[in-house]
TrEMBL record:
Keyword tags: Carboxypeptidase, Glycoprotein, Hydrolase, Protease, Signal
InterPro entries on file: AB_hydrolase_fold, Peptidase_S10, Ser_caboxypep_ser_AS
Top-rank taxon: Bacteria
PROSITE patterns: CARBOXYPEPT_SER_SER (PS00131)
Organism of this sequence: Joostella atrarenae
Acetylation in keyword set: no
Pfam families attached to this UniProt entry: Peptidase_S10 (PF00450)
GO terms for MF: carboxypeptidase activity
Stated name of the protein: Carboxypeptidase
Cleavable signal peptide: 1-19
Length: 495
């Protein structure tokens, strides 16, 4: 009996020690050297992978952010090269999607349309923007390997320090300053890029970096940005803005009437956009006061543009939810369509219902991204840890109050003549629709005085347009050209 107790005590002690060791180092870097061919030319670069602390006002470490930093080693004055600081969204998403599929020197093993293939892993990215800019991919707290850090008594910091629109912007702006200082990048033209909720994040960071950290940017890149002043508010405008996306998704799935289907997508969309702005928004604004004649006419037109039946549109009083659209469009064929990318198809348990059982596109993406990022960081970049890499982390409750990020971006642009903005969106994205992006862009600069510093680029894919190989090339080229045209070497910042 005594020997058994000793054995159990030994096992318990080992277990406790292992549990204590299962924590992320708060300040660490592992450097490795690599080479990739981009646009037919060899590029030599180093990768710094590791963690960098977040401090509170008293100088105590309250969190550590895991990041991966790529910088060229075969150029002169590399500390003066453009620097791109990259975030994904969620909130609560790791910085994995653009890291391993878009701008970085490595991309997933996937097919040309973005579907998983085995063996899982990564390959060289011949379209990476590393030839013109160095890149750091940042994981906010509780995503990737980033974590809160307990004090000496073992108490974690308050969650409100990190998990909210403005808290997120505040600590990330301070962290960026630390990163730029440590890596001697103050002389570099700087760009921030954010996807989905990351669009909200970088819009807010543009002003916080400028007015709180005294760091001026050359560019903000919004990839499939989420503007919650439209998405969460609802109402006639928010609802109507979905129609051009419905038309794009139906066109891709060959669900439109033949007269529209035989046209190219970019011939169809301007017609639908015009109808949305000039007819559908006013019609929805009338609510129950709309005449039966006008309601019938609008439903007929919406059916033509969306691929849905007139009856289903009338059943929704012209206000068709996106979740219903994903379920309804191909219901008769036995499929649902994806939320973030409506090229993807799913199969539900029952044909009945108002929304899909699952997001067909997200399950496909997690299928290929999760094994790839875990393999890549541990085996190729040699960052070894037993901490799980969190594709999506617990960041709730998230404080959405005081969202002034759209106007923050406008203010930052007004104050900084160097600052330009590039919006990128996929036509088949049903979560952050391309027309919502256009609308947000128009509202961001209502005076129109800065529209020559704002660009929009659309792609024939979804939320992560870069998963489609043709769009991977085009969208990276668009960022590359944006950086080259806005680095402003020798040009004074003045109006």
């Amino acid at each position: 009996m005594f020997k058994k107790l000793l054995s159990l005590l030994f096992i318990l002690t080992i277990t406790i020690l292992q549990a204590q060791d299962r924590k992320i180092p708060v300040d660490s870097i592992i450097t490795s050297s690599h080479q990739v061919t981009i646009k037919g030319k060899k590029v030599s670069y180093n990768t710094n992978t590791g963690t960098l602390p977040v401090w509170d006002k008293k100088g105590n470490i309250i969190a550590t952010l895991f990041h991966t930093y790529y910088y060229r080693t075969d150029v002169d004055k590399n500390t003066e090269r453009p620097l791109v600081i990259s975030f994904n969204g969620g909130p609560g998403s790791a910085s994995v999607w653009m890291h391993l599929a878009y701008t970085g020197p490595k991309i997933l093993n996937i097919d040309d349309e973005g579907y998983p293939v085995q063996p899982y892993g990564v390959k060289d990215n011949p379209n990476s923007i590393l030839d013109v800019a160095d890149i750091v991919y940042v994981n906010p707290v509780n995503t990737g390997y980033s974590r809160m850090v307990a004090d000496k008594e073992g108490k974690l910091p308050e969650r409100k320090n990190f998990f909210g629109i403005n808290a997120d912007i505040k600590y990330l702006a301070e962290w960026i300053t630390t990163f730029v200082t440590r890596n001697n990048r103050w002389k570099s033209p700087k760009y921030i890029i954010g996807e989905s909720y990351g669009g909200t994040r970088v819009a807010g960071l543009s002003l916080a970096l400028q007015n709180k950290e005294w760091m001026y940017l050359n560019g903000v890149i919004m990839v499939s940005p989420a503007d919650y002043k439209v998405i969460r508010v609802g109402g006639p405008v928010s609802s109507a803005l979905n129609l051009p996306y419905y038309a794009a998704a139906a066109w891709h799935q060959k669900a439109l009437d033949s007269d529209l289907q035989q046209k190219d997508l970019l011939e169809v969309l301007p017609e639908v956009e015009n109808y949305t702005i000039n007819t559908l928004i006013p019609a929805l604004a009338k609510g129950g006061s709309i005449s039966n004649t006008e309601k019938e006419a609008v439903a007929t037109k919406m059916a033509k543009y969306s691929g849905l039946s007139k009856e289903s549109i009338l059943d929704h009083n012209l206000d068709v939810p996106t979740s219903f659209y994903w379920k309804e469009l191909l219901r008769d064929e036995g499929y649902t369509v994806g939320r973030l990318d409506s090229r993807y198809l799913g199969i539900d348990k029952m044909a009945a219902g108002d929304s899909p059982d699952y997001n067909a596109e997200l399950t496909s993406w997690l299928h290929s991204f999760t094994p790839a990022i875990n393999y890549y960081l541990q085996e190729e970049l040699k960052f070894k840890t037993d901490i799980p890499y969190q594709m999506f982390g617990d960041v709730h409750p998230w404080d959405n109050e005081r969202d002034n990020t759209r106007d923050n971006l406008r203010q930052a642009m007004a104050q900084n003549p160097y600052l330009n903005v590039l919006y990128q969106a996929g036509y088949y994205d049903g979560a952050c629709t391309y027309f919502n992006t256009k609308y947000s862009m128009w509202q961001m600069d209502p005076s129109g005085r800065m529209k020559d510093r704002i660009q929009f680029k659309g792609y024939r894919s979804g939320h992560m347009m870069y998963l489609r190989n043709e769009d991977l090339k085009t969208s990276n080229d668009d960022i590359r050209n944006f950086i080259l045209s806005t680095s402003n070497q020798g040009k004074p910042a003045k109006y």
